[in-house]
Amino acid sequence: MTTYQTAFDEDEDKLARANANYRGLWASVLLQAVRDLDSKEDTERQPAIAYVSDSELTPGSFNWICESLELDTERVRLMTFTRSGRRKLLGRNIGNTKQRTEGTKHE
Fold it and tell me: Is pTM beyond 0.90 here?
């Protein structure tokens, strides 16, 4: 049996790949906010607290990203404010996150 892929199928595949890339990008934004919340530096932590606490639903906002990623916004928000919740969100021990990133050299 011969199957044919239509131009529509090819476009749908491209959209699915692009969507996966954008979802990854927005997930990275959330993960960075979680890392910043764990920082000992107020200059990193305070903006992250404001970002996660904000109730706006504009592109790039915490609420918008959670909704776009089909996450329970309030549950994720509550998790970000506890150390154990941040560990779960990051999926690893975050105590040495800053140390690991500082030890990495980009050339």
Answer: no
